[in-house]
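Handout, section B. The chain below has 114 residues.
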Amino acid sequence: MTAVAGGREPMKVRDSGMLEEQMWAAFFDAPDILGKLGCDDRQADIVEFGCGYGTFTVAAARRTTGTVFALDIEPAMIEATRQKAESAGQRNVQTRLRCCAKRLAFCGRAAKWL
């Protein structure tokens, strides 16, 4: 679903619920998928749009020494991702409550998009 506020650009708004975390995680082999997507640069910064429960965030953080920027529009998903990364000992994850990367600086560095 798209919303337009005050004549500005459309932005994404939540239009469906997430599955329970265990069911969601059962659908994916995140490390395998990241490998197939070519996320193999051990020093790359990575940006994940719609991080959800952090299923791919933590897997991506394990593949790089760079920073993984995890974005979502739901505060609960940001908190779930933050907790998952912390529990996994991944200190290279930065969560952001955002709908997109517009006006979001990544310290002037190039990043891979996930």
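Note. The chain has a mean pLDDT of 80. Compare this with the example in section A.
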